[in-house]
Amino acid sequence: MLKHLKDFKNFSLFESIRIEKMDPSTYEKETVTSLPYVNQIEENRQEFLKKLCKISEDLEIKPEWLLHTIFHESRFDPKYKDQMSHAVGLISFLPSILKIFINDETGKTITPNDVLQMSNVDQLDLVSAFYKMWFEKMKLKSPIIAGDFAALTFYPEVIKKGWSWEFPDYVVDLNIEMFKKFPSGVGRTKKDYYDYIDQVLNNDTEQDETNDYILGNFGGAFAEPGSYSNKKPLEYYKDLLFAIQDPAQNQELQAQDIENTEKSKQIGTLGINNVK
User: Fold this and answer.
1) Total domains in the fold of the chain
2) Residue 140 lies in a domain
3) What angle do CA 213, 254, 235 make, to 5 degrees?
4) Beta bridge partners of 88
5) Residue 135 domain-assigned?
6) Which of 36, 138, 151, 243 could be stapled to 253 by a disulfide with Cβ–Cβ 3.0 to 4.6 Å?
C-alpha cells in the first residue's frame, strides 16, 4: 500500500512513499506453479516465490517478468551491491531512488544499508512499491504489456513514444549486445524493442548466467519520477548511462538527485501545510 505526500500547491507528481510489509497471511496459500530460476533462490525459496506471485497478481503482471528482471539485476542476491553505481538489492536500487521510500515502522528514509540488511522476502515490499509508483506515474492500466513493464527499468519515456520511434545512437552504442538480439536483427524502434522484450519476459526458459544484456547495459531501479520533471527525460537518461561508466560523474549525479529529492519533499510539505 502506498501513502502519498503530494505537493498540492503545484500538483507535483513527486511522492514520498511509506513501505508497508505485506502480511504473510495474504500469500501463504498462494499456489506456486513451475517457474524459472527456482534453483537460484537460495534463501526462503517457497516464501519468496509465494510472495512474488502475490505481488505479481496485485500488479496484474506475470511472475516471470519479475523473475527475469531480478535475475538480470542481481542474480537473486539480496546482498548485491554494484561497486561503481552503489546500486543495491534485488533490482539494483540506487541511493537516489531509495531517498523517496520511508520505513513504515521507523518513519525514516530507507538507505542502501537498510536494503542490504533486508531478506529477499522483505525486499519484495520495496520492489512492489517501486512498480506501483511507476505504474501510477505513467498511467499504466490493465492489461499491462511486457514492453511497458521492461521500459520502467530501462527507459520509462519509451512508453510514451510511437511504435516507429527510434532509440538514439548513444543508447544503442551502450546496449549494442541487446539490440543485436532484436527479432528484426537490425531494428532500433520501440516496436523492435517491445517485440524483443515480449520474447524475453514471456519465456519460461532461464537466461544463461553469462547473459548480461537481457534488459540492457544499464537497467534497474535507477530513477524516481521527480527526476524526470527536473530534466528532459532523454537528457536525464543520457547522463545516467554515461555516469555509470564514470564513478566520479556518477557520484555527482547521485548527489544532484538526492538534492532534487530533498527539495521536492520540502515543497510538498509546504503545499500540504497550506491546504485548508
Assistant:
1) 1
2) yes
3) 65
4) 81, 93
5) yes
6) 243
pTM (predicted TM-score): 0.78
25, with CB counted inside 10 A (0-12, 13-18, 19+), is: exposed
Q: What is the pLDDT of residue 10?
A: 30
| Backbone φ, ψ for residue 168 (5° rounding) | -70, 160
- Cα–Cα distance between 99 and 16 in angstroms, integer? 8
Distance of alpha carbon 33 from its chain centroid, rounded? Answer: 25
Q: What is the pLDDT of residue 9?
A: 30
Residues spanned by the domain of 101: 17-274
- The rounded distance, in Å, linking the Cα atoms of 72 and 34 is 19
User: Is 10 part of any domain?
Assistant: no
Share of the chain above pLDDT 70, in %: 73
The rounded distance, in Å, linking the Cα atoms of 99 and 115 is: 12
Residue 171 DSSP code: H
For the chain, the residue count is 276
Q: 252: which 3 cell numbers?
A: 555527482
| Among 102-116, 145-159, 230-244, the least confident range | 230-244
| 197-243 confidence digits (pLDDT tens) | 999 999 999 988 887 777 875 543 445 455 555 555 556 556 665 66
Cβ atoms within 10 A of the Cβ of 33, count?
Answer: 8
